[in-house]
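Input/output pair, single chain:
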Amino acid sequence: MKLYLDDLRMPSEEFDFIARSYEEAVGIVEEHGCMSYISFDHDLGADDEEQPLKNGFDFAKWLVEADINGTYPLAKDFTYKVHSQNPVGKANIIALLNGYLRFRET
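Output:
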């Protein structure tokens, strides 16, 4: 199954689930298990006081922790893409997931 995480954009390809927030993405994984493919956005909007909401990096950290704990294990063939326009946020998600996936293979 495939998950697209983005607060505004629509995906250019077909996905099983579209999450518009961190909380929605977590809920989808809690209900359906970890996806085999996730496309991440980093910035997921702001609250009424213009404070940033939890973002794609927060969700990536949650996924790693859920895999380590065995709560929601990542699929053996898990892959991802970061389609975010935020270059720093994109680099952070990639570094976290690439590092963890390399660690997990050892």
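DSSP finds three helices and four strands in the chain. Residues 42 and 87 are 9 Å apart (CA to CA).
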